[in-house]
Amino acid sequence: VGTGRLETFSDGVFAIAITLLILEIRPPEDFSHLARGLLDLWPSYAAYAASFLLIGGVWVNHHAMFRRIARADRWLLLLNLLLLLDVAFLPFPTAVLAEALREGEGEVVACVLYGATLTIGGVFFNSLWAYAASHGGRLLRPEVAPAAARGVGRRFVVGPTAYAIATLLAFASPWASLAVFVALTLFYLVEGAEDRRGRPAG
Amino acid sequence: VGTGRLETFSDGVFAIAITLLILEIRPPEDFSHLARGLLDLWPSYAAYAASFLLIGGVWVNHHAMFRRIARADRWLLLLNLLLLLDVAFLPFPTAVLAEALREGEGEVVACVLYGATLTIGGVFFNSLWAYAASHGGRLLRPEVAPAAARGVGRRFVVGPTAYAIATLLAFASPWASLAVFVALTLFYLVEGAEDRRGRPAG
Amino acid sequence: VGTGRLETFSDGVFAIAITLLILEIRPPEDFSHLARGLLDLWPSYAAYAASFLLIGGVWVNHHAMFRRIARADRWLLLLNLLLLLDVAFLPFPTAVLAEALREGEGEVVACVLYGATLTIGGVFFNSLWAYAASHGGRLLRPEVAPAAARGVGRRFVVGPTAYAIATLLAFASPWASLAVFVALTLFYLVEGAEDRRGRPAG
Amino acid sequence: VGTGRLETFSDGVFAIAITLLILEIRPPEDFSHLARGLLDLWPSYAAYAASFLLIGGVWVNHHAMFRRIARADRWLLLLNLLLLLDVAFLPFPTAVLAEALREGEGEVVACVLYGATLTIGGVFFNSLWAYAASHGGRLLRPEVAPAAARGVGRRFVVGPTAYAIATLLAFASPWASLAVFVALTLFYLVEGAEDRRGRPAG
Question: What is the three-class DSSP state of C36?
Fold first, then answer.
C-alpha cells in the first residue's frame, strides 16, 4: 500500500472518530428544568471539545509525519492501524470521563483511562516514526536528512512521556491531570501545524 | 497543511455530521398505534430537515470561501477546527430542540441552545475569513482583489448577527425564532450556491 | 460547485448512511436463549440487507446520472441535497419496518412509511435529472444527445411510479408490498450497473 | 463504474465500519466502583480490537485484489456490495460476542454468529476474485498472468475454509475458536500487506 491510500484511509478514520464524539452527549431527562439540565452536562461539553481538538492534533501531526515518509511496508501499515485503533477508541474514555465528572465519582479512574489512551496513542505514534526512520531511513523521502529525522523523533518522543506523567498526576489531583492534558493537546495542535507553514500545499 | 487536505477533511466531517442527524430519531414505543406515534415525531423530522439543510449550506459556503484561499497556516487550521467542532456539535441541539417541541416543555431554552450553536458557528466562519483576508490578504489567492475580499467579509458578517437576533427572538416566541432560523438557512444555502454559477468546476 | 465535489460529498453521505444501518440492530436482551433471540431478529437482518442494497443502487444510478452532467448550479445543488436528505433518512423507516415485523403490529403503517421514503427519493432523483436536462440540456455534457437525455428521463421516471404503486399495495398486503420493494431494488441495482459496462472507468 | 470509484466507496465503508465498532462499548452503570466496572468490560475491548484488525485486514487485501482488476461490470459491483454488506454487518456480531463473554452465557452461539459472518465475508471475497479472473481474466489488468491469477485464487480460498473450520470448533470450545479467529486475522493482515512491499505506491 502506498502512503497515499494509507493517508486517505487514516483521514477517514480521524474524521469519523472526531464526529462520533457527539453521540456520547445525550439530552437531559427532565425537560421541565431544561436550562439546569443542560448546564449540568458541562463535563460532556468540555470532554467533547478536549477530545475533538486532540484528534484534530493527531490528524495534523500525522500529516506532518507522512509528508516525510515515501513508502509503506507491512509493519508500518500494522503500526498505523494500531494508532488508528487507539484514536477510534477515544470516544469511550471521553464518555467515561464526562460521566465521572458529572456524577462526582470515579474521577481518578476515568482520568487514568483517558490518560492511558492518550499515552498509548503517543507510543504508537512514536513507534511509527521510529520504524520509518530506522535502518538508515529507507522508508523516508530522500530529502529528509538523517539529522532532521532524529530531530523529529526527539520532538515526538516528548509526547507520550508528558502524557504518562499527566496520567500519573491524576492520582494526586484529577483536575491538575486534566489541565495538563488540555495544555498538551493545544501545544501539539499548534506546534504540529506550525511545522507546515510556508511549505507547498499538500 | 495545504488547503486541499483541509477541505477534504472538512468535507468528511460535514458529510458525517449531516448523516448522523438521523440517529437522533428513534422509533416510537407503542406499535399498536404506529401511525399516531409516527405523526407525533413531526418535530424530529422538522429539526432533522432544518439541520440537514443548514450543514449543507455550511458545506457550500465553506467551499466558496476556500476557493479564494491559497494557503493555510496554523491559526487558519485552528479556526477551521473550531468551526468543525461547532458543526459536529449540531446533532445535540437538534435532538434537544426536537424533544422540547415534542414534550411541549423547555422550548425557549432549546431554541436558545440551537440558536447559540448557529451563532457561534457563524462567528468562527467569519473569523476564518477575517484572518485569511488580514495583513493584506497574504493567505488569499492573488486574483482576489482587496475590495472583493472586503465585500465577501461584509456578506459573511451578516450571518452571525442575524442568527444572534433570531436567537434572542426565542425569548418572545420560539416559533418566530425557528421560522427565522429556517429562512436564514435557506437563504445562505441558495445564496452560497449562487456565487458559484458560471465558474469553473472545482 | 463543480460536479466533482458534489459527487464526492454525495458518495460520502451514501457510504455513511449505508454503514449506519447496522446501528439499528441491537443484541437481544436474554442471552440464556441466544440462538432463539438471534433468530427472532430476522426482520432486522432482512430490512438491513434490503436498505443496504437500495442505497447501493442509488449510489450506482447517481453516478450513471452525474457522468452525463457537466455543471452544477444552485438549484441542482439544492435538489441533490434533498435527495441526500431522503437517503440519509432511510435508517429510520428501516428500523421502524424491522420492529413492526418483529412485533407483528403496525406492519401496514411501517410499510407505507418505508415505501413513501423510497417514492420521495425517486421523485427527487427524477427532478434532479429533469432539471439538468431542461432548457436544452445546458447543464449536460455536450456529447449527450437530446434524444438520449429524454430516454434516460423515461427510464428513471418508472422508478417512483413503481415505488408508489408498491407502497399502495401495502394496504392490501404488506408482504406483497415488501416483495415488490426488494424486486425493484435488485432491478435498479443491476440495471443501473449495466449501463456502465464497456464504458471508460470513472 | 470504474474500479477507482468502487475502491473509494469501499474504503469509505471500511473506514466507517471500523470506527463505528466503538459505539458498541458503553460506560459501566456503577461509577462508585469504576475500576472494577471497566475491567469487567474486557471482552468488549478484546472484541473491538479483533474486529478492528479484521476490517483492517480486509481493507489491505481488498486493495491487493483491486490492484489486479482493470474494469468492473455489474456483477462485480454486486459481489463487491455483498462483501461490503458483510463487513458493515460486523459491529453486530462483535457486540453479541462481547456481551456473551461478559454474561458468561451463549458463548457458543455468539461465536458461531461471529464466525459465520467472517466465513460468509470470505466467500464473497473469493467470489469477487473468481468472477474477475473468470473467462480468461477479461476484467483483470493485462499484466496479470493467468498462472498468477490462479495462484492468488488459491491463496484467497484458504480463508473462508479456515474460518469455517474455526467456526465449527466453537461447538467444542468457544475459546479455541476465538483464538483461531485472531490468529487468522493477524495472518491475513500481515500477509496481505506483505504482498505490497516494494511495489509502486497506489
Answer: helix
- The gap between the terminal CA atoms of chain B, to the nearest Å, is 19
What is the predicted ipTM?
Answer: 0.89
- Taking CA atoms, what residue in A is nearest to B4? A202
C-alpha cell at B202: 472545482
Q: What is the pLDDT of residues D64-93, one digit of tens each?
A: 888 889 888 888 999 999 999 999 999 999
Q: Is A170 helix (H, G, I), strand (E, B) or coil?
A: coil
Per the CB < 8 A criterion, the answer to whether A189 and A56 are in contact is yes
pTM of the model: 0.92
Q: Do D5 and C11 touch (CB under 8 A)?
A: yes
Distance between CA atoms of residues B79 and B94, nearest Å: 23
As to burial, measured by CB atoms within 10 angstroms (0-12 exposed, 13-18 middle, 19+ buried), residue A82 is buried
A interface residues, D as partner, C-beta within 8 Å? 1-5, 8-9, 12-13, 16-17, 20, 23, 70-74, 77-78, 81, 84-85, 88-89, 91-92, 95-96, 99-100, 103, 105-106, 109-110, 113
Residue A195's alpha-carbon distances to B1, C14, D194, in angstroms, are 9, 35, 32
Contact C96 B38 (CB under 8 A): yes
Chain-chain contact of D38 with A5 (C-beta, under 8 angstroms): no
How far is the C-alpha of B42 from the C-alpha of B98, rounded, in Å?
8
| CA distances to B61, B95, B136, B159 from B123, in Å | 14, 22, 21, 8
Q: Pick from A55, C40, A199: which is nearest to B3 by CA? A: A199
